């Protein structure tokens, strides 16, 4: 969509104003629906805001327009906030991706080596289509459907039980006499191509916006507070996985899914058991060849270890199982024109170039923005400084190929030099931050001595873009997850003179400050008494955030979700992390050694942590924030596991598990696994052939046990 009209509103005739108002209102309504209901934004934030500002300006100049649509008073409400939440007893995980045959071979190799197999072979896998819909978990007790939940953040989803009951392919009661007491069946809700086309046709007839693709249409149809809307949409369901199910009907993946069929579910007929990488790839090619004629969208093939005992041994890394992978279909390409390059400033000050494209459909989705990665990428070099695209740069006005792979952000892939306008010029990447005007520089990586690929604003706290992005991150779904406080609201409060939010602590004083203010939030555009009350309640609900989410929310560089979880587990409380972070500035301190020894925490993270705690303004910011919130320690693995918090070393030959497996098991139980024995080691697990580590253990008086002793200790 183009930028809104730039003729000053004062010079418009009432008729012109009315026409423009109507068009804008429709555009905004469509964007609201796409953003809030369909989870598929069709406008970027800046274009959306420009439209809202123009709408308000029109209504101010022509008050009669206000009654007509009264759209400027409305902020879309996320339907999700109105669904009750259901905590998944077994988390709903995602899958790691494979993009090539080599990736698949590596995955199969990893599975074998993790399980201690010297040679590849002998482990069977299933291969099945990866359905492009949304996952749903159905809980049956004594064979009756008791609730249905969406994936949500994997830990907690939305209660869509009433909606799920309207789907004919979801049985209300399971059939068969082998149905377990408790069975959580998981699978994918999706729409067939023909049904999708029908739904869009009806949307068109009613003058409503169409869905971009079947997946969005399925999501929008399931997450409806008005169940009759769901019932009118022919949603379908394939069962392919499970959550809590204490008694399983089989000991293989294939067998359990077979049982699902007998209980009344539809399962995918293309699922096959394969014995080798070659067989998996053969299945992949066959499914890919049938893709166009299946009648529903798939975006790859999922491989899973068939033997459930092996699945259990393999376990999980972060949010994905080690025993499964999604082999994605190749990305889709389209050609369009690069109209402009916009520089966005991120939370850490990174300047990211975004391609503004003439809208083009790539794989069923209209794309108008794509990433250009960084300055070097635009100039024609990869991260190692080697030429890409035969060294050609990317210029405004170029005809470019855009690549989109699944959920990945589309990117500008290549340039058609034969179509380059004669007067085009090389793009000059800004050296000043577009948000605050500070210098933007490329740091030298101390380890490699090379220039960082990313240019960063040096403005720090004075840069409004960074401040806003940090706040957005703090309240985002994987951090504090405050309902009703999304990107738009953060931008609003950051700029609001009456109720400014400049740092995280300010969020928690909103209600108190609003009460003291003369001008109330409920009277402001986009808010009402009810929505304000809800917002304040949602904020209050997050005054005791889980420690790992709190750490992640601080947005410390290099500390993602997994690292935040590790730190939360290790330190238990925020105070412990903070004092360690401060004391660790002294390289020879015991705190520094402890930090260095945490498995999974590398020097980059250690450095980033110390940098964060060394800044006086961060300390002050934390002081103010901690006066408002009390992070809750991670649900302690510690209290249940005898090795939680202990430093364990494995040495010698292990017989019942591989070294990787031992390490993963110890970590799951909250222990830290170290590579060498010191006075800080709590336990040495020594198998036959143990050498110097055993000696070190004796020297330091460390407890030594064998593999059997380990299993007795951890109760397996
Ligand atoms: S198995 C523990 N099988 O893909 C692994 N997932 O990227 C559970 N999906 O959230 C997932 N088809 O929504 C599995 N045949 C299939 C699938 C499938 C689609 C989706 C599912 C999941 C996502 C992970």
Automatic annotation (TrEMBL):
One of its GO terms (molecular function) is DNA binding. It catalyses: NAD(+) + (deoxyribonucleotide)n-3'-hydroxyl + 5'-phospho-(deoxyribonucleotide)m = (deoxyribonucleotide)n+m + AMP + beta-nicotinamide D-nucleotide. Its EC number is 6.5.1.2. It comes from the Bacteria. NAD(+) binds at residues 45-49, 94-95, 128, 151, 188, 304, 328. Its cofactor is Mg(2+); Mn(2+). Residues 638-711 form the BRCT domain. The keyword DNA damage applies. The active site is at residue 130. InterPro entries: BRCT_dom (IPR001357), BRCT_dom_sf (IPR036420), DisA/LigA_HHH (IPR041663), DNA_ligase (IPR001679), DNA_ligase_AS (IPR018239), DNA_ligase_CS (IPR033136), DNAligase_adenylation (IPR013839), DNAligase_N (IPR013840). GO terms for biological process: DNA repair; DNA replication. Zn(2+) binds at residues 433, 436, 463. Keywords: DNA damage, DNA repair, DNA replication, Ligase, Magnesium, Manganese, Metal-binding, NAD, Zinc. The keyword Kinase does not apply. One of its GO terms (cellular component) is cytosol. DNA ligase that catalyzes the formation of phosphodiester linkages between 5'-phosphoryl and 3'-hydroxyl groups in double-stranded DNA using NAD as a coenzyme and as the energy source for the reaction. It is essential for DNA replication and repair of damaged DNA. Belongs to the NAD-dependent DNA ligase family. LigA subfamily. NCBIfam families: dnlj (TIGR00575), PRK07956.1 (NF005932). This is DNA ligase. It comes from Bosea lathyri. The gene is ligA.
């Amino acid at each position: 969509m183009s930028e809104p009209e730039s003729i000053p509103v004062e010079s418009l005739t009432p008729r012109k104003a009315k026409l423009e108002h109507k068009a804008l209102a429709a555009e905004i309504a469509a964007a609201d629906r796409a953003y809030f209901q369909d989870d598929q934004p069709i406008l970027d934030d800046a274009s959306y805001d420009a439209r809202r500002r123009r709408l308000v300006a029109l209504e101010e100049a022509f008050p009669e327009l206000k009654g007509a649509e009264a759209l400027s008073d409305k902020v879309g409400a996320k339907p999700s906030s109105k669904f009750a939440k259901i905590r998944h007893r077994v988390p709903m995980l995602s899958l790691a991706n494979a993009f090539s045959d080599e990736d698949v071979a590596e995955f199969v190799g990893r599975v074998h080596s993790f399980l201690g197999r010297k040679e590849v072979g002998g482990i069977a896998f299933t291969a099945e289509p990866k359905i492009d819909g949304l996952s749903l978990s159905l809980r049956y007790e004594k064979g009756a459907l008791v609730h249905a939940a969406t994936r949500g953040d994997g830990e907690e989803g939305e209660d869509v039980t009433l909606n799920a009951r309207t789907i004919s392919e979801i049985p209300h009661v399971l059939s068969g006499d082998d149905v377990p007491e408790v069975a959580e069946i998981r699978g994918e809700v999706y729409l067939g191509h023909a049904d999708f086309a029908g739904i869009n046709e009806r949307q068109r007839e009613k003058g409503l916006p169409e869905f971009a693709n079947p997946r969005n249409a399925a999501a929008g149809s399931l997450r409806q507070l008005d169940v009759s809307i769901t019932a009118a949409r022919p949603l379908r369901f394939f069962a392919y996985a499970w959550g809590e199910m204490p008694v399983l009907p089989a000991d293989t993946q294939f067998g359990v899914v077979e049982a699902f069929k007998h209980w009344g579910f539809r399962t995918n007929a293309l699922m096959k058991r394969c014995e080798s990488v070659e067989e998996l790839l053969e299945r992949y090619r066959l499914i890919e060849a049938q893709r166009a004629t299946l009648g529903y969208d798939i975006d790859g093939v999922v491989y899973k270890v068939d033997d459930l005992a092996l699945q259990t041994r393999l376990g999980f890394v972060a949010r994905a199982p080690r025993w499964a992978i999604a082999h994605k279909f190749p990305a889709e390409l389209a050609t369009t024109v690069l109209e402009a390059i916009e520089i966005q400033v991120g939370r850490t000050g990174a300047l990211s170039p975004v391609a503004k494209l003439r809208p083009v459909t790539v794989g069923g989705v209209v794309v108008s923005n794509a990433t250009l990665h960084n300055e070097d990428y635009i100039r024609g070099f990869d991260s190692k400084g080697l030429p890409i695209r035969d060294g050609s740069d990317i210029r405004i006005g170029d005809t470019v190929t855009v690549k989109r792979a699944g959920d990945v952000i589309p990117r500008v892939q290549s340039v058609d030099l034969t179509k380059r306008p004669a007067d085009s010029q090389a793009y000059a990447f800004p050296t000043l931050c577009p948000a605050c005007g500070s210098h933007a520089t490329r740091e030298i990586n101390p380890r490699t001595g090379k220039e960082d690929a990313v240019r960063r604003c040096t403005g720090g706290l004075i840069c409004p873009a960074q401040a806003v992005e940090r706040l957005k991150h703090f309240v985002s779904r994987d951090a504090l997850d405050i309902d009703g406080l999304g990107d738009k609201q953060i931008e609003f409060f950051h700029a609001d003179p009456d109720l400014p939010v400049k740092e995280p602590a300010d969020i928690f004083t909103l209600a108190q400050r609003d009460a003291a203010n003369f001008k109330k939030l409920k009277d402001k555009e986009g808010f009402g008494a009810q929505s304000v009350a809800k917002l304040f309640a949602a904020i209050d609900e997050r005054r005791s955030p889980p420690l790992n989410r709190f750490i992640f929310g601080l947005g410390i560089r290099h500390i993602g979700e997994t690292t935040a979880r590790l730190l939360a587990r290790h330190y238990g409380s925020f105070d412990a992390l903070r004092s360690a972070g401060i004391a660790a500035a002294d390289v020879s301190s015991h705190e520094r050694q402890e930090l260095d020894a945490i498995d999974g925490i590398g020097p980059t993270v250690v450095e980033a942590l110390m940098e964060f705690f060394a800044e006086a303004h961060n300390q002050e910011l934390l002081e103010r924030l901690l006066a408002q919130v009390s992070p809750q320690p991670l649900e302690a693995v510690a209290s249940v596991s005898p090795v939680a918090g202990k430093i364990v070393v494995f040495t010698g030959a292990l017989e019942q598990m591989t070294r990787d497996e031992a390490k993963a098991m110890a970590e799951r139980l909250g222990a830290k696994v170290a590579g060498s024995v010191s006075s800080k080691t709590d336990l040495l697990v020594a198998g036959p052939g143990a050498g110097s580590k055993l000696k070190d253990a004796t020297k330091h008086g460390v407890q030594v046990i064998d593999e059997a002793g380990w299993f007795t200790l951890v109760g397996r």
